[in-house]
Write a structure and sequence with these properties.
This protein has 1 helix and no strands. The chain has one helix spanning about 40-59. The N and C termini lie far apart (about 55 Å).
């Protein structure tokens, strides 16, 4: 029996609901997760690490 991934369903600017697939283990897609979700925090930390590395290489 195959399980299907749920849809995001977040309200959009146009008034409808988001049709993108929700990320595994969450109820929203990556666009509607928000900055403090585990996904958003991990993404932000990765970007900060990249910037730090770039800054170190400049010196």
């Amino acid at each position: 029996m195959a399980t299907t991934q749920s849809k995001c369903g977040a309200p959009t600017k146009s008034g409808g609901s988001c049709r993108r697939r929700a990320m595994v283990g969450t109820s929203r897609c990556e666009l509607h997760q928000g900055p403090w979700s585990p996904y958003g925090v991990a993404k932000r930390k990765a970007e900060e690490a990249k910037k730090k590395l770039k800054q170190r290489r400049k010196k």
